C-alpha cells in the first residue's frame, strides 16, 4: 500500500519538528529516513502511525486520507527502538495480541503466530516471557508482532539501535529476508545509521532541521550527492573549496584532471577511499599527514593541503598499505572520475 505525506508540518508547542514534508513510498518499496538527531525523522514516522497529529498537511495510505483516523484503525505495523513488548505476556501471546484484538478465530491466530515466530527464527521461544530473552530476540519478537496483523505498511523507528554490532548485522539480514518474503509491503525505516540505510533502503530521504534535504535511490545519493550536507552525512565525503580557471577546476591551485566545471559556486566532493597517497613529487595535492586512525580494514589518515587553511582531508588507506608517519609530506591524488561538484550551501 502506498504511503503519502503531503506538505506535513508538525509543531510541538513552539518547536517545529517537521516542516512542509512531502514523501511518497510505493507498495513494495523501502524508504529510509536518515538524518542527525532531532532532524524530525521520528516525528514523520509518528505522523504516519497516527501518534502525532499534523498541524498542517495530509497523510494518505493506499490513496485514502487517514489524517483523522486513530492509530489502531490505520492497519499499520510499528516497531520502535525499545521493543515495547508486553512484559506480562509470553512471546506467543505478544505476537497474538493484534490478531486477538481484531477478533480473529482461534485457529487462525495459532497458525499465524506459528508462521511469524518461524519467520523470525523464534519458534522455540513461544512460552518465554520477554525478560527471558536477549535484546535481539526481543526485537525479533517485536517484528513478528508487528507483522502478525499482515500490515501493508511497516514503520520501523531505529529498530536496531539498542543491539550490539553482531546482532545488528543478524537483524539486518532478517529484515532483508522479510522484504523478499513480503514483497508488497511498504516500509519506512528511521535511522541515523547510514550503513543500515544503505543496506536496506531502495531510496534514502536525508533530513535536516525538520526538512527533507534530498531523496533518491541509495546508490545514486552515495555516488552523486546533490548537496554538501548529504555528501558529508552519507559516507563522510571530503568537501574541498575549488576555483575555476580557464575551464579547469583547481584545488589550492592544482588542476584536477578530468573534472568539468559546473554552474554556480561549488565544492569538490570525494570519498576517503577514492584518494591515493603518493610520495612528495608526484602529481596531485601536496600536503602533510596530521593524524591516523585504525578502522580495521582501513587506516583513516587525515592530511592538510598546502595553501588551504582549515581544510582536513580524510584518506582511507587499505590496511595492507603502509601508513605515512605523522608530519610526513605526502601527495594526495584525486582521480577526476571519483570527484563530483556539489553546490555550496544547499541543504
Ligand atoms: N513530544 C514532543 N514534545 C516536544 N518536542 C518534541 C516532541 N517530540 C519531538 N520533539 C522535538 O522535535 C524535534 C524533532 O524530533 P524527532 O524525534 O522527530 O527527531 P529525530 O530526527 O527522530 O531524532 P533522534 O534521531 O534523536 O530520535 C526535536 O527538536 C525534538 O526535540
From TrEMBL:
PANTHER family cross-referenced by the UniProt entry: SPERMIDINE/PUTRESCINE IMPORT ATP-BINDING PROTEIN POTA, SPERMIDINE_PUTRESCINE IMPORT ATP-BINDING PROTEIN POTA
Recorded GO MF terms: ABC-type quaternary ammonium compound transporting activity; ATP binding; ATP hydrolysis activity
Gene Ontology CC annotation, any one: ATP-binding cassette (ABC) transporter complex
EC assignment: 7.6.2.9
Keyword S-adenosyl-L-methionine: no
Keyword terms, alphabetized: ATP-binding, Nucleotide-binding, Transport
InterPro entries recorded: AAA+_ATPase (IPR003593), ABC_SmlMolc_Importer (IPR050093), ABC_transporter-like_ATP-bd (IPR003439), ABC_transporter-like_CS (IPR017871), Mo/tungstate-bd_C_term_dom (IPR008995), P-loop_NTPase (IPR027417), Transp-assoc_OB_typ2 (IPR013611)
Protein's recorded name: ABC-type quaternary amine transporter
Gene3D superfamilies according to UniProt: P-loop containing nucleotide triphosphate hydrolases
Segments forming domain ABC transporter: 3-234
